[in-house]
């Protein structure tokens, strides 16, 4: 609430993924409180609607299962039917550190959920974002990107079958979030669009994201987490700030921590890797992407 104090967002339409709990729920609450029309997603429409109970403002529930590309396309089409333009898209939903390898259509599940699902969603919504007076895409990454493999993205192991490690695969997916945001910013600039793309690290927070951690880690977080963890409100602040702060209208291609743009360094700033990831992501989602006049994936 502090970072949005005094803002009037009544003319804004916002999409927040993963709005049923934690950071997504708080992000949705505050943006609606400031007058925005918030479209919030959950894995089912009922779960999304239940999360909105008791909240003030204009709220619309929509179903989105990021592991199901048909669901992603359906969500994008629903959002299009709700609003012609889209001012803000916040890619917040995610999963973390699955203890055992899980796959979706042969691909490691964290990579699909955290990156590919959002890649497809944003690309399907890009025309609406670019038609807004100043569209913004905010992708929730994480300092966990540092856990990614040395080469950044294991393009020859997207199945996750070789040497599966929960944290490594989570780190790869969070690095992918940051690289996606970086490459999107470059493409928007080339297109001459006023839309922006930035990624954020919300901080270390005790939310449902840690539900796959060992029980002792969860207990430690509950007992002493207050000494080093942020509250959900503090964690959502950077996301909301980057999504709404007026003076960031022309700021694009950055990574934010604690409401400040910082240089993450390493693979997170690797433009060549970002471009390769974009091309690979296009190939993996090709049949679900919008087509241009020549029938090519947009």
Highlighted features:
alpha/beta, two-stranded antiparallel sheet, 8 helices, 10 strands, 40% helix
Describe what this molecule looks like in 3D.
By secondary structure, the protein is of the alpha/beta class. It contains 8 helices and 10 strands. It has helices spanning 22-33, 45-52, 69-82, 109-131, 166-190, 215-224, 232-244, 271-285, and strands at residues 13-16, 37-42, 58-63, 88-91, 103-104, 107-108, 136-140, 196-201, 255-257, 260-262. An 8-stranded mixed beta sheet has the order 3-2-1-4-7-8-9-10, sandwiched between helices. Strands 5-6 form a two-stranded antiparallel sheet. The longest helix has 25 residues, at 166-190. The radius of gyration is 18 Å and the shape is globular.
